[in-house]
Structure to design on (457 residues):
């Protein structure tokens, strides 16, 4: 179950190539079951081949009646049987063209040459070769497609030019020749005479079929590649959106962690110091103890209010809502640490902070973190100097202590200094923190700050 307010994660597998390509119900069926199209093409070629074999038989009989073949030659039987065998071979190969388009194209080309060599007819094998070239163009690169096209066209053109006797033009011209009784050709030829015009017509028809197969196949490949590109682009955008959301959540978690650290560590450190002081002074200075206890209560209420703001920001879906401290009065922050027994001297606390909430929050948190580190890691420090200065390009916060006289709470986690640097970096500033040559510790933060009036102009 997703947490309320969290961005829904997109399943990048929801969008598929078939969904992008869309198409008619028949197109979707073919895309889902490619074998349907293969079987359909094979069946169509079988039917076309059967009808064509009938025309080829009639053409061979007509040519023999015209005396273009010897009288006693069984030309019609050879043409019809070769045509039917070529049809069966072509249909069988087309049924498996999707698995090995280059191999099927090669075998169909060889079968076409053999058919021309044996009976002088190409039959339906030319259309089968065009369908095979469609498969090559749809699945292979453009360079491979045109290379195969050139080899197939050259091979079949030479075979047609040398061996074809019966083509489309001959079927149209001779299929009904010699019909009727009482006519006898004056002589019978061994084979029809060579006609460059008729051969050229067959070559042009073959060229048109092969170009059609390559064109349609290339268009199918282009559509498929375009659909794949769209799917990949969608998935990349979905991944980028998920990554951006994750980065935003990580940044928000880091922001919340900084706020929690500041609230808990700062406030509790002050409260512990005040409580220890109240306990030590209870017997000899009851009034001071009561003041310290009241300060503990005020600090606790302030911390509780800040905690409620943090938790409220976690539960809202408004990304523009910002966590702001309940107090941005620098004097109050310094006085709270002074009440805990820290010898603080401060200058520039009345410096007017900008209207920008981010800068005001950063100044308050950095000052509070620096003083908390002194309270925890340098107890008994002889002096703590705080300075807030306005510069032409920003605001500076500096906290310098003279070194503790008692053991601190340990080395710490380093989260406080990291948090100060992260706050400054978010505003384009920086924080320098480290030991001083003469002893003690120094924290210096520089935050860029354009003048409000100048920014309005």
């Amino acid at each position: 179950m997703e947490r309320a307010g969290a961005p829904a994660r997109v399943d990048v597998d929801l969008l598929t190539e078939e969904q992008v390509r869309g198409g008619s119900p028949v197109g979707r069926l073919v895309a889902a079951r490619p074998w349907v199209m293969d079987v359909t093409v094979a069946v169509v070629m079988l039917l076309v081949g059967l009808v064509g074999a009938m025309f080829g038989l009639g053409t061979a009989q007509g040519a023999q009646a015209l005396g273009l073949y010897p009288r006693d030659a069984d030309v019609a039987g050879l043409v019809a049987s070769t045509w039917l065998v070529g049809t069966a071979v072509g249909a069988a190969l087309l049924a498996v063209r999707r698995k090995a388009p280059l191999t099927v194209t090669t075998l169909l080309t060889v079968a076409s040459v053999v058919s021309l060599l044996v009976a002088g007819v190409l039959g339906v094998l030319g259309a089968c070769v065009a369908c095979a070239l469609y498969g090559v163009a749809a699945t292979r690169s453009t360079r491979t497609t045109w290379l195969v096209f050139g080899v197939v066209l050259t091979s079949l053109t030479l075979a047609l030019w040398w061996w074809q006797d019966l083509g489309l033009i001959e079927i149209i011209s001779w299929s009904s020749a010699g019909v009727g009784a009482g006519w006898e050709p004056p002589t019978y030829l061994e084979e029809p005479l060579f006609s460059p015009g008729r051969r050229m017509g067959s070559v042009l028809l073959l060229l048109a079929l092969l170009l059609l197969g390559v064109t349609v196949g290339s268009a199918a490949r282009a559509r498929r590649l375009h659909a794949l590109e769209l799917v990949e682009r969608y998935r990349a955008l979905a991944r980028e959106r998920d990554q951006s959301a994750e980065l935003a959540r990580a940044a928000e978690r880091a922001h919340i962690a900084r706020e929690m650290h500041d609230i808990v560590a700062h406030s509790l450190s002050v409260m512990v110091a005040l409580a220890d002081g109240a306990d030590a002074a209870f017997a000899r200075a009851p009034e001071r103890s009561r003041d310290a206890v009241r300060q503990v209560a005020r600090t606790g209420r302030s911390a509780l209010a800040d905690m409620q703001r943090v938790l409220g920001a976690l539960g809202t879906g408004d990304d523009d809502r910002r966590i702001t401290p309940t107090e941005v009065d620098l004097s109050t922050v310094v006085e709270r640490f002074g009440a805990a027994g820290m010898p603080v001297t401060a200058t520039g606390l009345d410096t007017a902070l900008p209207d920008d909430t981010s800068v005001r929050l950063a100044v308050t948190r950095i000052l509070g973190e620096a003083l908390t580190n002194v309270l925890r890691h340098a107890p008994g420090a002889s002096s703590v100097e705080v300075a807030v200065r306005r510069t032409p390009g920003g605001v500076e916060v500096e906290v310098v202590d003279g070194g503790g006289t008692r053991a601190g709470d340990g080395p710490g986690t380093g989260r406080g200094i990291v948090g100060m640097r992260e706050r400054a970096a978010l505003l384009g500033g920086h924080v320098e923190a480290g030991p001083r040559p003469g002893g003690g510790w120094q924290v210096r933060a520089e935050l860029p700050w354009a003048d409000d009036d100048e920014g309005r102009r």
